[in-house]
Specification:
Subunit structure (chain A): The complex is composed of six subunits: RnfA, RnfB, RnfC, RnfD, RnfE and RnfG.
Radius of gyration of chain A: 32 Å
Biased composition (Basic and acidic residues) (chain A): 524-543
Radius of gyration of chain B: 22 Å
Oligomer: heterodimer
Main location (chain A): membrane
Distance between the termini of chain B: 52 Å
Binding site for [4Fe-4S] cluster 1 (chain A): 385, 388, 391, 434
Number of helices of chain A: 14
Structural class of chain B: mainly alpha
Number of domains of chain B: 2
Structural class of chain A: alpha/beta
Shape of chain A: globular
Biased composition (Low complexity) (chain A): 491-521
CATH class of the domain at 1-30 and 129-298 in chain A: Alpha Beta
Number of strands of chain A: 17
């Protein structure tokens, strides 16, 4: 790639287009006019132990413990994991499964803290103002300690993402401020109010990655954010390193792959990561959290959350401690309007409907949407697909959604992969334009989950087959060894018998002694055969048992993690 | 907590812009001017023909949807299109009972047996027409003149043929009308059998004999363009059909312009316009990829001209579309677009 010199505002950067996409009514002005308000501390916080992709953290506090703000309450487990911190001071009253923001509506382990209202901070790690003189590994360690995960939705641990490995050096860091989903404005407000912090975070990440430049992509429906960010870049004197790029508003330009395409014209290879082509994408919120962690030593315990939709009285943004119930946000927004019909976590295109607002804000929760039935009407029952091809026209991955749908419906998992199911980013464009109102994305999620399940089954079966083969080989080897021993014994036996017979014959007569000797040998062989047969029968029984039990004993499903990775960060 | 239960739905949570019945209703609306012109041109017979096929098509759809437990599928309006389109492709004096047979066969064999809307391989109206083309070859090639005097008060004699009876010959009736030389026969037949090419302007505006709704290329073009503008149909298919037909006709015309029709004549005669804008563009039977649509359209256009020039029939649009419908799934799978980030040695679709 050629070196392209650029200076803020000196010339218009060339932008590329991705296929398809939709111009949606953006509904941003509902909530972006007022600054983000700090939400008063709630009386109780529910902090899930898993707010990231990877292994859940393990609680390192006990019920009854007093915790302080910023204290680690969940230790990371394994390399792809993140710690969890107390968002305020108080007493741990329970560690138990609670409802968490997840499409399944299932419960997950959480630490429940009754706030004391004092908000006493724990002793924080020292700030690292001279980050440029600090080794990248130390900074990554700080980021890990601070529990930072991708805040654009995928919630992948940031320290892992910032260590792409030696073979793929990152040349360009891309900061995602596109925020393409309608209604959501928390990144918009964050950029307007904390541009300098974001730029600090970007600077730190550039240092960690040893990257040459950074492109910040912001949709042109956020002129104030663009201006604030540009100003912050010049104030920091980083024009030669960081360029704020205004991109056209088109959903899903905030999808990682789409943003890369728009800004660089490159495409991330299918089934690969951006680092493969020397790129890395982080959300503006993540950059802010990195600045907080490195320059102030503060762990990730709060974030901006948009409360919007015409189903709440006063849509706006809030600065919220992690673990605050969504209900408190809604209450602070003036509560529900009478015509509120649906509650959605995330944006209207990729978010999921939840049954109740009794769920906590997590690190990656960006929006609580209360929609009226006029905004989100019942699409009615799905009608047959008429193959109009509108879905293919809008697909940003250039897939053939209707073909995927036919094969997903027919549970033809090979065919859906032939049609590149796993390149689907689940943006929802196809489902929105479908005149037959088919819940297309839901079919793809289903087919993906089924494919993962089949893959796991295949692996389990292969594992069982290998175990069986190994066992057979072992038994054969044992049998061969036994035979060899027997032969040795046999070879030794006549000599022994003769020797014994000669001895006995010397006492009682040679004839009887010789007969007795052969008899004992044949009796011994019979016994051995019977034992061997019994052993074989037992082995067969065990094998049969092992074969049936094996799939169940296979490692626990990891579909969830995979699904979320695949869904990607589309904001 | 809100007091009332919250409905759980899957994403996206926004209002859908389009629906199947809106698409189908738009097509019906676009067909109405063509029907009106047909009635203006051929009178009462055309009106009865359109009403008959539409009513029978709807009744058949209702019956089969009931039998298969699909409920009321008339609300999606697709069968109304089938009924109207079928009438528009038939000669105006086509016996009503035969038209009813065509409508029943088209909907029953062409659509219902495949599973209804979205599952039919071929255009249902054309399946019905192909059936009566084989069953009643004389009646379906007997055209009557346009603008016959008294067409609004009396029907063409063959229209009201009793069921299962052969229609009365209309030659005497046509002779009684005392019209000028070529307006009795269709331009296509004139061109093919007598090498007389009527002026393109007359053919284009539709002041000629022909099937009930295929005469005015201009009107069909306008209605089709409106649908394309409303993004109900994909403009690529009709444009590809027309390009395919014109480009195939061009070399033959250049070689021998006295024996072979001009590209303009090929475009504006017979069922080509109606076929291109309203039948080839039928969403269900056409390929789903952009390049596939172009291939499919050119295939239809070229095949139509080849049938017209070298086949025994004067018209080839119907068979060309039916054949292309059959090939559409194959074309779709050949022309799968390169997905985002596709790696060089991307897997081929089996």
């Amino acid at each position: 790639m050629n070196f392209i010199p650029f200076h803020a505002g000196s010339r218009q950067r060339k932008l590329w287009q991705f296929h398809g996409g939709l111009h949606l009514p953006d509904e941003k002005t509902l909530s972006n006019t007022e600054p983000a308000a700090p939400l008063p501390l709630p009386s109780q916080l529910v902090i899930p132990l898993q707010q990231h992709i990877g292994t859940p953290a393990r609680a390192c506090v006990a019920v009854g413990d007093r915790v302080r703000t910023g204290q680690v309450i969940g230790e990371p487990q394994g390399p792809v994991s993140a710690p969890v911190h107390a968002s305020t001071s108080g007493v741990v009253t329970a560690i138990e499964p609670r409802a968490v923001p997840h499409p399944s509506g299932l419960q997950a382990p959480c630490v429940i803290i009754d706030a004391d209202g004092l908000d006493q901070w724990a002793e924080l790690p020292p700030p690292i103002p001279a980050f440029k003189q600090t080794a990248a590994d130390d900074l990554r360690q700080r980021i890990r300690q601070s529990g930072i995960v991708g805040m654009g939705g995928a919630s992948f641990p940031a320290d892992v993402k910032l260590a792409p490995g030696g073979e793929h050096p990152v040349e360009t860091l891309i900061i995602n401020g596109a925020e393409c989903e309608p209604y959501i404005t928390c990144d918009d407000r964050l950029m307007r109010e904390h541009a300098a912090d974001i730029i600090d975070g970007v600077h730190i990440m550039l240092h960690i990655l040893d990257a040459r430049r950074c492109l910040v992509g912001i949709e042109d429906n956020k002129p104030e954010a663009i201006a604030a960010m540009r100003q912050a870049v010049s104030a920091a004197g980083l024009e030669r390193l960081i360029e704020v790029v205004c991109i056209p508003t088109l959903y899903p330009s905030g999808g990682e792959k789409q943003l890369i395409r728009i800004l660089t014209g490159k495409e991330v290879p299918s089934h690969d990561i951006p680092a493969r082509i020397g790129l890395l994408v982080q959300n503006v919120g993540t950059a802010m959290a990195v600045a907080d962690a490195v320059l102030r030593g503060r762990p990730l315990i709060e974030r901006l959350v948009t409360v919007s939709g015409r189903g709440v009285a006063h849509p706006r943004n809030f600065r919220v401690r992690i673990g605050t119930p969504a209900a408190a946000l809604v209450a602070a927004s003036g509560g529900y309007r009478p015509d509120q019909a649906r509650l959605v976590i995330g944006g209207p295109m990729m978010g999921y409907a939840v049954e109740s607002d009794a769920i906590p804000v997590t690190k990656s929760l960006n929006c609580v949407l209360a929609l009226t039935s006029a905004e989100s009407p019942d699409p009615g029952p799905a009608q047959p697909c008429i193959r109009c091809g509108r879905c293919a026209e809008v697909c940003p991955a250039r897939l053939l959604p209707q073909q995927l749908y036919w094969h997903a419906r027919a549970k033809d998992l090979d065919k859906v992969q032939d049609y590149n199911l796993f390149d689907c980013i689940e943006c929802g464009c196809c489902a929105l334009v479908c005149p037959s109102h088919i819940p297309l994305v839901q079919y793809y999620r289903y087919a993906k989950t089924e494919s993962w399940a089949r893959e796991r089954e295949k692996q389990a079966a292969e594992h069982a087959r290998q175990r069986h083969a190994a066992r057979e080989a072992r038994l054969q080897r044992l049998e061969r060894e036994r035979q060899a021993r027997l032969r040795q014994k046999k070879a030794a036996a006549p000599a022994k018998a003769t020797a014994a017979g000669a001895k006995a014959g010397a006492r009682t007569g040679a004839k009887t002694g010789a007969v007795a000797g052969t008899k004992t040998a044949s009796q011994h062989a019979d016994r051995q055969a019977a034992i061997e047969a019994a052993r074989k029968r037992a082995a067969e029984r065990r094998q049969a048992k092992a074969a049936t039990a094996d799939p169940a004993a296979s490692p626990p499903p990891t579909a969830n993690a995979g699904q979320e990775t695949n869904a990607g960060e589309t904001r | 907590m809100p007091a009332k239960p919250i409905e759980i739905r899957t994403s996206p949570h926004l209002k859908r812009a389009m629906s199947v019945d809106r698409i189908m209703r738009s097509v019906v609306i676009a067909l109405l001017p063509i029907c009106a012109f047909s009635i203006y041109q051929f009178g009462l017979s055309a009106l009865l023909l359109i009403l008959t096929t539409t009513a029978v098509a709807m009744a058949t759809e209702w019956l089969f949807a009931r039998l298969s437990g699909q409920g009321n599928t008339l609300t999606d309006w697709s069968v109304v299109i089938t009924g109207i389109l079928l009438a528009l492709t038939l000669p105006p004096g086509f016996p009503l009972w035969m038209a009813a047979v065509a409508a029943f066969v088209g909907v029953a064999l062409g659509k219902a047996l495949f599973g209804g809307l979205g599952f039919n391989v071929m255009n249902a109206a054309l399946v019905g027409r192909a059936f009566v083309q084989a069953a009643f070859p004389v009646a379906i090639t007997t055209w009557t003149p346009a603008f016959a005097p008294g067409r609004f008060t009396e029907v063409i004699p063959s229209t009201l043929t009793m069921p299962f009876m052969q229609p009365v010959p209309v030659a005497d009736w046509i002779a009684g009308l005392q019209l000028d030389a070529w307006s009795g026969a269709t331009p296509l037949a004139l061109q093919k059998f007598q090498q007389i090419e009527p002026p393109v302007t007359e053919v284009f505006t539709g002041m000629i004999a022909g099937s009930a709704g295929e005469t005015s290329a201009l009107l069909i073009l306008l209605c089709g363009l409106w649908l394309a503008f409303k993004r109900v149909l994909d403009w690529r298919i009709p444009v590809a059909v027309m390009a395919g037909a014109a480009l195939t006709a061009l070399p033959f015309w250049l070689l021998d312009s006295s024996a072979n029709p001009s590209p303009g004549f090929v475009l504006f005669t017979g069922g080509l316009m109606l076929g291109a804008w309203f039948m080839a563009s039928d969403l269900v039977g056409s390929p789903v990829t952009v390049s596939g649509m172009v291939i499919y359209g050119v295939f239809i256009g070229a095949l139509t001209v080849i049938i017209r020039l070298f086949g025994g029939l004067v018209e080839g649009v119907m068979y060309a579309i039916l054949l292309a419908n059959a090939a559409a799934p194959l074309i779709s799978s050949w022309t799968q677009p390169k997905v985002y980030g596709a790696v060089k040695q991307s897997r081929k679709v089996k």
